[in-house]
Structures are given as structure tokens and as C-alpha cells.
Amino acid sequence: MNLSSAILSTLVYHDIFGYPLDLSETANLLIKKKAGEESIARGLGSLRVIGKVGANNGYFFLKDRQKIVRIRKLRAKYSQQKLERAAFFAGLLKVIPSVKLVAVSGALSMRNSSKGDDIDLVIVTSKNLLWTTRFLANLLLLPFKRDPAGQKISDRACLNMFLDESALSIRDRNVYTAHEICQMKLLWDRGGTYKKFIDANKWVKKYLPNWQPEKVTSSKSQVPSHKSFQFITNNLALITERVLRSLQLSYMKSKITTERIGKTQLFFHPKNTQDWIISEYKKRLKKLGI
Predict the structure, then answer these.
(1) Considering the domain boundaries, does residue 222 fall inside one?
(2) Residue 213 burial (10 A CB sphere; 0-12, 13-18, 19+)
């Protein structure tokens, strides 16, 4: 893929979300092409000359799509309030010792939330404590969670992804999941969990070779030092985990639609957007002859 095609592909992908990019974002999220910012700036300039790309207020977008600049600015205002609320949720979750990481995903991670959007949270748990952590997290955030019936959604917490720290690699490897991983906004982590997550998903470089993770400071994990205490608590935890897993699976059995339930990874998505986004992306690329 040449540089012009890579730039257009990048703008096409984000145009699906009504999201224009500035120069540094275009460089950081350039699809399937490694290139420096100066080269990308020249490429954008050339594409503007031939009328394939427009620019306004420092943002770049596809031809005749200037209106998404205003949309992005409006959504940034909504997103700021939601990020503050997300930080509040993450602060509450800190009291659960088995929560190793809390992050924001989806539109909010890019400050691109609409007014009525909920707040998607990603949670990484201690090994073998995924279901216990999920139970405690849902209990703790119960007053703030989105309504499953769809009556209360705006600014509500949506616990849509849980990962056991022993299984951080994401199985679905495509342009959509690569963006979701790279755009994820960390709220806090313990013991370098974010770095471990990124290291487990180095495959994203196949799709976004220029992308660099943000530098973060992790909290230290609190580990009991007495071995006999650890032995007792570990065994009690295993028993509790089995019981809570059984109870939650029993409750969820009749409600599962697009959710993916595994032993070490849980994905809860009200709508399966991944397939639609990839299909739409390919359709738009074909239209441009890419």
C-alpha cells in the first residue's frame, strides 16, 4: 500500500465514526503503512491539491466531509463530562483488590461520544478471579449501570469487557479490534498490567505500525506476605469463583445473544458492531478504488 492510499484508508476508517483527524493522529493511526509525520504531511498536502482530502481548523477529512469537524468538537464537550464520570467509576472499582486495570473503550476513548451514549469500561482481573471480580464490580456500580432494557443509558456504566490477567491477548485480529486496543484510554492499573496487555497484543502493529502506547505509571500491587495466609485465601477464592461463575452463567443463560462468554475472557456487546464496521470500511475502500 502506498502512502496516499494509507492516508485515505485511515481517513475512511475514522469517517465511519464521523471523526476527522489532525496531523499527529493521522500519523499515529496510519493504517498498514509506516511513515514519518513529515512524509504524511506532504501526502496530505498532495491529496488536498487533487481534491480528495479537505482540511479545516487543523483537521483532515475526506472530500465534502467538512461537517464532521463541527461534530467532533461537539462530541468532545459531551465526552469530557463522561470521562470525568468514568474516572469516578474507576475510583470506586479500586476498592476491589482483584481489579488490575480499568480503562475506557469505544467512542469515549476517542472523545467522540454522543450525548446519549453510555460509558464502556474494560476491566482486567487477577488470575482465576474473573467471575468474582465481575460480581463485585456489578454490585459496586449497580446504582450507575445502564439499564438492560434500554431505558437508562446516557452516562451509565457499561461493563462490557472482562479479561483474566492470564489471558490478555485478543483473539479477533483485524483492523477494528486493533483500533479498539490502541484507542483504549487507561484510567488506572496495578503492577504494570497495561504494559502486559499491550505486550500481549503486539499484533496490532500489523494494522497500525506507527502507533505508540501512552506512558503510564502503575500502582504497586498489594500482595500478602505470609504464605499460610495466602494459601487459605487462595483456596477460599477458588471456591467462591466456582460458585459465582455458576450463579452468573445460570442467570445469563437465557439472555445471551451477541455476548462471548469464555473461561478467561468476557465480551458483552449489546450490538455486534465489529462485523458492520469492517464491512462498511471495505465497501468505502472499494468505492475509492483502494
Answers:
(1) yes
(2) middle
| 91 and 205 part of one domain | yes
Judging by DSSP bridges, how do beta strands 119-125 and 99-104 pair with one another?
Answer: antiparallel
Show pLDDT as tens, one digit a residue, over the chain (290 residues).
899 999 999 999 999 999 999 999 999 999 999 999 999 999 999 999 999 999 999 999 999 999 999 999 999 999 999 999 999 999 999 999 999 999 999 999 999 999 999 999 999 999 999 999 999 999 999 999 987 666 678 999 999 899 999 999 999 999 999 999 999 999 999 999 999 999 999 999 999 999 999 887 777 655 444 444 344 346 567 888 899 889 898 888 777 777 788 889 999 875 578 999 999 999 999 999 99
Among residues 63, 26, 20, 65, the alpha carbon closest in space to that of 43 is found at 26
Q: Are residues 126 and 258 in the same domain?
A: yes
DSSP 156: -
Name the residue range of residue 7's domain.
Answer: 3-65
Same domain, residue pair 112 and 87 = yes
Are 34 and 137 part of one and the same domain? no
Q: Which grid coordinates are listed for 146?
A: 445502564
261: phi then psi, degrees, rounded to nearest 5 = -110, 115
> Cα(139)–Cα(159) distance, rounded to whole angstroms?
11
Number of domains in the chain: 2
In a domain, 282, yes or no: no
Residue 56, helix vs strand vs coil: strand
CA atoms of 196 and 202, how far apart (whole Å): 10
Model confidence, pTM: 0.89
**DSSP 8-state code for residue 206:** G
| Residue 213 DSSP code | P
